[in-house]
Design brief:
Blueprint (H helix, E strand, L loop, with lengths): L4 H4 L4 E4 L10 H10 L4 E5 H11 L9 H17 L4 E7 L10 H20 L3 E5 L10 H15 L5 E5 L10 H11 L4 E6 H8 L15 H19 L5 E6 L20 H8 E2 L10 H9 L7 E3 L2 E2 L12 H19 L3
Parallel strand pairs: 1-2, 1-9, 2-3, 3-4, 4-5, 5-6, 6-7, 7-9
Antiparallel strand pairs: 8-10
Helix pairs in contact: 2-12, 3-4, 4-5, 6-7, 8-11, 9-11
């Protein structure tokens, strides 16, 4: 499919609140910076809602104090509207699927689901991002995972809500786009689709933060790697219906200065998860992933919906930054978005 420049002009722009400042940064300042740069929507990060609620009510709000969080969400929605924005999606809902029947983890997952649905109603948003589970306790059967997600879809459906399922490249059972797409097809509900991500796709199938080269090292070398990745993107472009992609998240990655330990850390987080948490800049700003290739493949499906900046930019060494000028950073992110569209266009 030819990607014309004219077809890209209507793509709406979004920015994740967790991708600017810190959880302690006042949310109104984040919203002001995002709006000033010209973005039209936000992904509201749950850590930002939790921080806002704790400050607003002058207490440490528990992540499952849904009465307080629901009230806080109503106030946040007013702030978002006053800034000229909209809440496109609530994120990240993690480790939902795969718990054994009768387990405490399963009970907790469904309790959280019902609480987050209340928050979505207060925020006037219709989309919930669910990341593919990285729990080592999750049952590996894709049919079982799909059954759980189907139940979540059924909880969301009466409210007109959608589930945007994202492959996290460090996930235990669904780290690639093909995995989550297979699960989405098994779920077979009208209100489930994909949250695709340039980092999660390229970072899982092309790059490896544990190697000196920063690439997946397999027999045949880089030439074979490039060929396999190109084939994967061609399959993506030809097989996923555009209406089953709900949002595309945009970020790049720095190559770690020192390869990461391939073993999970003390909290059980795998190396790609650690890499994701602080070494993800905006495109064209020091990263090395083939972001344009991934975005181009998504656009070749015919998708022309939300492009969302979701970065975790701690600088090349991952030590974070001072965030003294959030407006400048958000403006740079918008410029990156515009350049990305230019580079994906065929004419």
């Amino acid at each position: 499919m030819t990607i014309s420049k004219s077809s890209l002009g209507s793509i709406p722009t979004c920015y994740a609140t967790v991708s600017i400042g810190t959880p302690d940064t006042p949310l109104d300042q984040k919203l002001a910076a995002i709006a000033a740069a010209g973005f039209k929507g936000i992904e509201l990060g749950f850590p930002d809602l939790l921080s806002f609620a704790s400050k607003n009510y002058d207490k440490e709000v528990d992540p499952q104090d849904f009465d307080t969080l629901n009230d806080a969400a109503r106030k946040v929605n007013i702030m978002v509207e006053d800034a000229g924005l909209k809440v496109v999606m609530l994120q990240p809902f993690s480790n939902f699927e795969g718990w054994e029947e009768g387990s405490e983890g399963r009970e907790d997952a469904f309790r959280r689901a019902n609480g987050w649905i209340r928050i979505m109603r207060a925020l006037d948003t219709d989309m919930l991002q669910v990341g593919s589970t990285d729990s080592p306790h999750a049952i590996s059967s894709l049919d079982f995972l799909a059954s759980d997600l189907g139940q979540l879809c059924d909880l969301l459906a009466p409210h007109g809500f959608r589930l945007a399922y994202e492959n996290w490249c460090w996930a235990t059972h669904a780290p690639d786009w093909k995995d989550v797409w297979e699960i989405v097809q098994k779920v077979d509900r009208p209100n489930i689709g994909l949250c695709l991500d340039t980092f999660q796709t390229a970072g899982g199938e092309w790059a490896d933060p544990t190697t000196t080269s920063g690439l997946i090292e397999r027999a045949g070398g880089k030439e074979i790697l490039e060929k396999q990745f190109k084939t994967s993107l061609e399959i993506m472009a030809k097989t996923i219906p555009k209406e089953k992609i709900y949002i595309l998240q945009i970020s790049d990655a720095y190559k770690p200065r020192t390869p990461l330990d391939p073993k999970p850390d003390d909290q059980g987080l795998r190396p790609r998860g650690r890499w994701s948490s602080c070494l993800r800049p905006i495109p064209f700003d020091g990263g090395y992933l083939p972001v344009v290739d991934v975005a181009k493949a998504v656009l070749e499906t015919g998708f022309r919906d939300w492009f969302s900046i979701e970065v975790f930019d701690g600088g090349p060494d991952g030590s974070d930054q001072d965030w003294k000028d959030m407006k400048r950073y958000a403006k740079k992110a918008m410029e990156s978005h515009e350049r990305l569209l230019e580079e994906t266009a065929d004419s």
